Amino acid sequence: MPAGRAASEPAGPPLRIAFYAPMKAPDHPVASGDRRMARLFRDAFGAAGHEVRLASRLRTWTDGADPARARRIDRIGARIAARIVAAARGRPEAAPDLWFTYHLYHKAPDPIGPRVADALSIPYLVAEASYAAKRTEGPWADGLAASAAAIARADALVALTAADAEGLAAIAPAARIHRLAPFLDVAPYTAASAERARHRAAAFGAEPGPWLLAVGMMRAGDKERSYAVLAEALATLADRPWRLAVAGDGPRRETVLAGFDPARTTWLGAPPVEDLPSLYAAADLLVWPAINEAYGMAILEAQATGLPAVAGAVGGVPEIVTDGVTGRLVPPGDPAAFAEAVADLLDDPAGRAEMAEAAERTAATVHGFDAAVAALDRVLAPLAAERERPARPPPPARP
Question: For residues 241 and 248, what is the distance between their CA atoms, to the nearest angstrom?
C-alpha cells in the first residue's frame, strides 16, 4: 500500500483476496497506466485490512493477429485454475475468500477467475471490465465471448467510467454495477506541488519556458498516434515561446521523437513512478491527445499535482479533466483544435494558475485514495456476508 498508510478495519470481515490482472500483472517489469491502476487496487484492498495474494501472472492480451491464441490461452487458464482449486482444497485455511480480476475485456479475457470462483463457491469481483458488442465478429470474437461470460458471472462489477458502466449494463444486471472514480494516492503529488520552483530548477535549470509535458509509452498503435497528433499540433505554434519535455520510451521511440522539433524538445526517457510527481510540478501544461485512452493515469497524476491539461475528449478523460475549469478538452484526433487550446493557455498564465488550483482540489476530493478504499469496501461487504452464509440446500428432486 502507499508509504505511510496503515491498514484500516474493513467494513466486513477481512478477506483473503486472490488478485489477477490478465492485461498486465501489478509486478510486470514494464511501466504503464494499466500496471499503475492494478497496483492501486491491490493497495486499496490492503489498506482496508484484506490479505491480497497474486493468483497468476498469465498475460492474456492479444493483438488479434493470431485467432488461435484465445483458445490456447483458455486451455492454459483452465490448467492454472485447476491447480489453484486443488491447492485451495488441500489447504482450506489458506483458500481465497474472493476472486478479484482487474481490467477484463475482449483483448484480455479472464480464463481463470470464473472457473476458480465456481469450483470454490466464492464471490467473483471484477473492476474495469468493458464490453464492446461490435467485436462479436473478427479476431477478438472468442475473447469477447469469454469476457461476456465472465462479466455475466461476476457478483459485482466496478466501473471506472460512465462508458464502461453503460456497456456492462447491456449484459449484466444494473444492481451489480458500481461506479468508482479513477483514483490515486494524492499525497506525493500534493507535496510536489508545494515545491514547484525547486522541481522546476532541478528538471529544466534556467531553460526558459513555458514547459509543456507529454507522458506516454512509445509503442505502436494509439500511443504512437497520440504523439503524432501532438507533433502536428505543436508544429503550428512555432511563433510562441514553449519547450516540450517528453517522458516515455518504447519500441517506437525513434519514430515518435522524429516528429518533434529537436531544438525545442527534451526527451527524458521513462522516469520511475516515484519521480513523476516532481516532473509534473516542474511543468506548466500537460499536453496529451489521449487517442482511445480509457481515462489516462498520467492525466490524473498531473491534475493531482496542480498541472492543467489539454487532452482529447475521449473515453473517461472528461471525467478527469473538466473543460474550462481544470484544463481544456478537444475533439479526439484533431491537431488544429488541440493547437488552438494549447495556444489559448500559453497566452493566459493567469487562467492556467486558476486551473492549476482547481485541478489539484478536484483530484484530492474526487479521486483520492482513502475515498476509493471506503467505496471498494462497501462493495466487498455484502459479498463477504454472502460468503459467510450457510450453503443453500439443493432443491428437492422432481418426482
Answer: 23
> Which CA distances in Å does 214 have to 267, 280, 397?
10, 10, 65
CA atoms within 13 A on the CB side of 355: 27
CB 268 within 8 A of CB 260: no
Task: Please report, for residues 217, 228, 252, 295, 314, the alpha-carbon distance to residue 220 in angstroms, rounded to integers and kept in the order given.
Answer: 9, 11, 6, 19, 19
Report pLDDT digits (tens) over 121-159.
999 999 999 998 888 888 889 999 999 999 999 999 999
Per the structure block, which three cell numbers stand in for 4? 505511510
Residue with cell 462508458: 163
Confidence bin at 64 (pLDDT 50/70/90): confident
pTM of this prediction?
A: 0.88
Q: Is the bond into 271 cis (omega within 30 degrees of 0)?
A: no
